[in-house]
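chain below, 253 aa
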Amino acid sequence: MLSDFDLCDIGRIKSYLENGGRVYMSGAESTDLLETLVGAKLTGRTEEKNVYIAPTDNGERYFYGFNKKYPLPFDGSAPIVEVDSDSEIFATLTLPYSTPKEIRFASIHSDPPGRDSDIPVILRKRVGKGEIIWSALPIESIGFFEYKKIFTSILLSMIPDHKPSFTSADAPDDVEITLFETDEYMTVNMCCVTERAVNKKYPPFTVAVKCDKAPLAVKLLPNESEIPFTYENGYVYFKTEELYIFDMYQIIK
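prediction:
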């Protein structure tokens, strides 16, 4: 059971949704959250420990090649829920051919998908002026690239007019970019995230950062050497220096 403080939090979240907020929620550990925000009732869990997420016709565009015939695998049991008819279902549950208690098997090395169901796994629901996306399984916790891409595309479905705070079309895959903002400047960090024993140097790449107006300057820290930039369509564009492990740029407003 949730404490009074937690129940109060649920009320605040619901109020935020009803007034136009957007929320992503995964799992079914709190039945109060599930029923109040999603309108879903938990009825049990699968005995299978390997399940599959099968996109519906509405949800397939977010799954980048995964579909009902070739669903997305997930290691873990899934909650079984009943939902309101006004929920938009993005994906349903597919189970392996056999249950853990059965002696027969479909594959000696795996539990391939074999039994379709109408049990919702990912859905979107309007709540007042806002909306919530609920996933029965925490796909956001999986580190593989495909899961991250699917999770991001599902989140962005709630923000059709979304313009990212920053972007880079040609940055290496193992470079992480983060942005911090104050009233006076923005700080853009470039960090190499790799499992290599010896890091390498990366050639320059272009970064675009959303700004309300053209900045006064772009500087490479800590020496504060000025970097050429252009400003177009609400974004400042600049080319990085050669990157080795970590660099920090400052955009002066």
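The CA atoms of residues 56 and 170 lie 33 Å apart. DSSP finds three helices and 17 strands in the chain.
thats it, cya
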